[in-house]
């Protein structure tokens, strides 16, 4: 009996009556069955109180039947407006435990009645698979992907005996979790199984497709609707990305991590009808083929294989002919966005039609906002993000509330995007508020901590921090790890006061807070790198086993020699998959390297500002020791190390860091080339509040100095160093070079004034002093303003 309900996205049925102990009285069975059907009808009509009353009557006839209790838990949940999902999980866990206890007791009875024999109990009678799956579904809708995954993995490991419909639900949910967690390896393991188990004969099927036959559809009768999709990393995510990790600039990863050129487009929502859940999807062969094809495209987008993704999305469009192609168009829009074809991405997004559906309006506005951000139209992007948040808010207020609406609520992801936008517009206080809200789900992503630290630093530059927050107390904030397992939490202690890092009561922005955030980011990143190294070892062992199997298979003539033919038929060629996975692994590794460089460079800056030169020197040296460190960060490492050594009264050692770029006695080479600098250029919008470059009156277009400016900073720093040692004659030509490259830099001008005074050139010094107006840039450091 198909008893799905499209309005509530929950399925109930009279299974409890069917699975009860057989009664000799046929009339009693008939009454029980009628009650169960009546309960189902009431639930589908949204009459949850009436449904619960009927289920109570059923429970009296079938005392403590797990399936009745299961349905009661779901009905209670919807009666209360889906407001207490954790209570639902507790109730379902209780039902699961009861099923296991009943199964164990039944087994003991059989063994007692038949000693010495292998006791067997009907699996269907006490099967808790549906209950376990619903627990995983609930955690998924609450964006608790790790919890959901830990529950689903045992089911997937023993998926063969399960009903085909339930197996499909498990697999689709695992695919969405893998995408949300940006776990390409896990995704492929599940997809490969589905392609083999459910994808056979795709090439020979008629395009109209025939409906697949499923046995025991009643087994799904108690299922909550299953698969919805999400993008978290994360996340923010990604996490990276995208974070939730941040969605990366596919053409230049370097530009993403620091300059934040990409934001988070949202596109992972079910195919066919965008608002349908798996329980409501049609399982015709052609629809399942389209579904798997769309997941294949999402996998290729995740692993940045854009060339193959372009071909596969065309194939998806062909399959979707005369069907709903919204998802295919949305993915094609994301593909064009990844390629930087923003106008084409906008057109495809509009054609997809997702803006017409109430449940996907937020996704539409968010994605369009990301595109406008990329085009440098910050004000338009802000309006679109605001509309997206408003759509998510209305989704949460829907009556009756749908559990599916919770997973479609992308408000925290969009809030993170708002934070990036405000940061780009030079509004650190607003950006920090957004990041702190988003930290509820992104707290284990290093990038969220880097962003909050950047907000503190920008607020410091702009003079927006309260005076007591930075100078009055420069003592370190200590970190503590408390609890074990899932209760393990990171805590921080300042002046004997302990606060949860994910608390809603965030301390005010300050440089000490920036240090805490950077420490959190470094800790999380090191943990991630450690886990990566462990997985590399496991992958190597697995690869050796697979290679042995492949060699054995080849010896028996079982290996396929025509991979192109296999690929053309819709299969995912193993070589292409392995190349995609390997490439994705390399990209992720590069992302983490760049994040670590940013974290360490910012930490060195903070320690210098907090007058901790010893720690600043240690962090700067750690930055310089990173393998394959980018030239820009190597430059910053030398500058920060030199400044720390000067503060420690070690000018000779400081000079050694600056002399790394010396050419002869009085010249410096460029610390980095234009091609190293270009990826870090930012979008400049007329409505942003970036720090102005006093030499042009325009907003600076990068977070770093241009190569020639960096060279000028080296001249100025070495001149200042020589001047403090009394070598004014040697310092004079250096500061002259510095001013030629940085004519409006106040620090260089002040150094030149000092040297002129020491050399007795008071008139030259007076003329230079008249040029001093406002601080524009601290050599090698972030921009600041001062009177």
TrEMBL record:
Map out region (Disordered) in residue numbers. 547-567
Extent of the signal sequence: none
Against SUPFAM superfamilies, the record matches this protein to: TPR-like (SSF48452)
Describe the family membership recorded for this protein in Swiss-Prot or TrEMBL: Belongs to the CNOT10 family.
Question: Which PANTHER family did the record assign?
Answer: CCR4-NOT TRANSCRIPTION COMPLEX SUBUNIT 10
Q: What is this protein called?
A: CCR4-NOT transcription complex subunit 10
């Amino acid at each position: 009996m198909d008893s799905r309900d499209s309005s509530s996205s929950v399925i109930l049925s009279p299974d409890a009556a069917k699975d009860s102990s057989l009664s000799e009285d046929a009339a009693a069975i008939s009454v029980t069955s009628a009650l169960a059907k009546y309960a189902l009808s009431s639930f589908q009509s949204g009459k949850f109180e009436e449904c619960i009353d009927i289920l109570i009557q059923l429970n009296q006839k079938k005392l403590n039947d797990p399936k009745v209790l299961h349905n009661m838990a779901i009905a209670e949940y919807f009666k209360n407006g889906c407001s207490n999902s954790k209570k639902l999980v507790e109730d379902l866990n209780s039902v699961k435990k009861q099923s296991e206890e009943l199964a164990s007791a039944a087994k003991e009875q059989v063994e007692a009645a038949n000693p010495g024999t292998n006791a067997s109990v009907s699996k269907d009678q006490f099967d808790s698979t549906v209950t376990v799956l619903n627990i995983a579904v609930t955690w998924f809708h609450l964006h608790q992907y790790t919890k959901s995954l830990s529950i689903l993995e045992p089911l997937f490991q023993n998926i063969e005996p399960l009903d085909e419909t339930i197996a499909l639900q498990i697999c689709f949910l695992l695919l969405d979790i893998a995408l949300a967690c940006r776990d390409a390896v896990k995704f492929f393991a599940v997809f490969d199984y589905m392609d083999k188990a459910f994808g056979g004969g795709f090439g020979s099927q008629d395009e109209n497709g025939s409906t697949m036959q499923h046995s025991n559809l009643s087994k799904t009768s108690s299922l909550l609707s299953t698969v919805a999709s999400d993008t978290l990393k994360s996340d923010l995510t990604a996490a990276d990305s995208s974070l939730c990790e941040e969605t990366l600039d596919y053409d230049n990863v370097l530009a993403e991590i620091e300059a934040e050129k990409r934001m988070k487009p949202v596109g992972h929502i079910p195919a066919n009808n965008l608002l349908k859940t798996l329980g409501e999807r049609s399982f015709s062969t052609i629809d399942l083929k389209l579904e798997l094809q769309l997941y294949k495209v999402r996998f290729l987008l995740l692993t940045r294989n854009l060339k193959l993704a372009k071909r596969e999305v065309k194939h998806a469009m062909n399959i979707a002919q005369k069907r709903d192609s919204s998802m295919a168009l949305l993915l094609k829009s994301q593909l064009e966005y990844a390629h930087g074809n923003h106008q084409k991405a906008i057109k495809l997004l509009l054609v997809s039609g997702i803006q017409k559906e109430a449940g996907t309006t937020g996704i539409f506005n968010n994605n369009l906002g990301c595109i406008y951000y990329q085009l440098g139209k910050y004000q338009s992007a802000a309006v679109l993000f605001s509309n997206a948040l408003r759509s998510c808010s209305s989704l949460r207020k829907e009556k009756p509330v749908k559990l599916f609406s919770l997973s479609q609520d992308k408000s925290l992801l969009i809030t993170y995007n708002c934070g990036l936008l405000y940061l780009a517009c030079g509004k650190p206080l607003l950006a920090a508020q957004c990041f702190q809200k988003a930290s509820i789900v992104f707290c284990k992503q290093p990038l969220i901590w880097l962003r909050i630290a950047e907000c503190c630093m920008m607020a410091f530059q702009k003079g927006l921090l309260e005076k007591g927050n930075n100078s009055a107390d420069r003592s370190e904030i200590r970190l503590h790890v408390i609890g074990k397992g899932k209760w393990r939490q990171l805590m921080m202690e300042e002046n004997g006061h302990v606060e949860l890092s994910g608390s809603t009561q965030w301390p005010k922005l300050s440089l000490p807070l920036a240090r805490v955030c950077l420490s959190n980011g470094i800790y999380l990143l090191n943990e991630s790198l450690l886990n990566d190294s462990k997985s590399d070892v496991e992958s190597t062992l697995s690869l050796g086993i697979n290679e042995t199997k492949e060699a054995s298979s080849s010896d028996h003539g079982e290996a396929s020699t025509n991979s192109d033919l296999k690929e053309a038929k819709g299969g995912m060629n193993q070589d292409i998959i392995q190349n995609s996975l390997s490439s994705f692994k390399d990209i992720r590794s590069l992302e983490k390297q760049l994040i670590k460089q940013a974290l360490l460079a910012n930490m060195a800056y903070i320690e210098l500002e907090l007058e901790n030169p010893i720690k600043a020197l240690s962090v700067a040296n750690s930055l310089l020791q990173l393998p394959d460190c980018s030239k820009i960060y190597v430059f910053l490492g030398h500058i920060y190390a030199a400044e720390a050594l000067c503060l420690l009264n070690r000018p000779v050692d400081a000079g050694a860091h600056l002399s790394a770029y010396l050419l002869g006695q009085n010249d410096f080479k460029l610390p980095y080339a234009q091609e190293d600098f270009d990826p870090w250029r930012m979008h400049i919008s007329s409505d942003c509040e970036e720090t102005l470059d006093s030499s042009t009156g325009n907003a600076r277009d990068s977070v770093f100095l241009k190569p020639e400016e960096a060279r000028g900073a080296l001249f100025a720093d070495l001149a200042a160093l020589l001047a403090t040692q009394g070598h004014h004659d040697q310092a004079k030509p250096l500061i002259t070079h510095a001013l030629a490259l940085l004519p409006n830099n106040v620090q260089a001008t002040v150094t030149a004034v000092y040297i002129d005074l020491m050399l007795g050139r008071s008139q030259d010094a007076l003329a230079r002093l008249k040029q001093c107006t406002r601080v524009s840039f601290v050599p090698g450091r972030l921009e600041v303003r001062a009177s």
